[in-house]
Amino acid sequence: MTAPPPARMPEQAPYATAGVLTPISRDGRRTRTSDLVHDELVAAIRTLRLAPGACLSETEIAERLHVSRTPVREAIARLADAGLVHVVPQVGTRVGLIRLWDVAEARFVRESLEVSAFEAACRSPALDTGALRDLLDRQEDSYRAGDHDAFFQADEALHAEVFALSGYLRAWQAVQRMKLQLDRLRRLAQPDTASMRDLIDEHRLIIDALSARDVEGGRRLISRHARRALERVPKLCAQYPDYFAD
Predict the structure, then answer these.
(1) Whole-angstrom distance, CA of residue 222 vs CA of residue 9
(2) E-assigned strands of the chain?
(3) Are 108 and 115 in contact (CB under 8 A)?
(4) Minimal CA–CA distance to 159: which of 105, 102, 215, 121?
(5) Cβ neighbours of residue 198 under 8 Å, at least 6 residues apart?
(6) Domains and CATH numbers, the chain
(7) Which of 77, 147, 157, 191 is the most exposed place for a label (fewest CB within 10 A)?
(8) With contact defined as beta carbons under 8 Å apart, do 221 and 206 qualify?
(9) Are 98 and 54 contacting, i.e. CB atoms less than 8 angstroms apart?
(10) Angle, nearest 10°, between helix axes 169-178 and 148-166?
(11) Whole-angstrom distance, CA of residue 129 vs CA of residue 127
């Protein structure tokens, strides 16, 4: 597969850091400030607190995060290397668009690894799906409360637990690094309450299949589940045309 050319940014994009970034707190940790800034910006991009195409200002980010401009500059350079932001000399810095090629690739990686994790978990002699059931209850509660952030967090924790049960939790960490573009697409789709209901129902079926050690059924369920977000692409592209790049 050949990677597409760099995405073209929209002509207009608002400054978007006001009220969406959390001030950095070191809490006695030895982590570099630039790493903390990087992680906060990645989280803001992943959750759409920083929208695709939004303009970024080093000065404003530094003020919002209560840090100097040097770690901000270092973090933005890392984000640019990863294709998450685009720096145009004499013009400015903008959050990268959601690249559909990257979304498709992330879906492929996630589906492949999660199917393998499910199979490995089915072989575990000490299989216990209690934690998965608890997370499903959390997701149900957040759905009823209309708390989209809590819903997304429970969703992530549930999938991470499948990898933990497989014994390959670091594989989930690799998926996390890979699927940021996919997560942005999922966030755009999440306010659709019907889709949220479907996700919960699919999670329940996956957990039931795992409890029954139904490998073939689990494979089918996970593959369908992993591809659900892509079904929304045409509608989301029409609804948010300035957020996407081919």
Answers:
(1) 34
(2) 55-56, 85-88, 92-95, 98-99, 244-245
(3) no
(4) 121
(5) 228
(6) 33-96 (1.10.10.10), 99-245 (1.20.120.530)
(7) 191
(8) yes
(9) no
(10) 140
(11) 7
> pLDDT 10s digit of each residue in the chain, 246 long?
444 444 444 444 444 554 588 888 766 666 799 999 999 999 999 999 999 999 999 999 999 999 999 999 999 999 999 999 999 887 889 999 999 999 999 999 999 999 999 999 999 999 999 999 999 999 999 999 999 899 999 999 999 999 999 999 999 999 999 999 999 999 998 777 778 899 999 999 999 999 999 999 999 999 999 999 899 899 999 999 999 997
Residues 6 or more apart in contact with residue 227 via CB below 8 angstroms: 107, 111
Q: Which residue has the tokens 């209901």?
A: 197
Q: Token pair 């045309």 is at which residue?
A: 241
CA distance 147 to 153: 10
Q: What is the CA radius of gyration of the chain?
A: 19
CA dist 37 and 85 (Å) reads 14
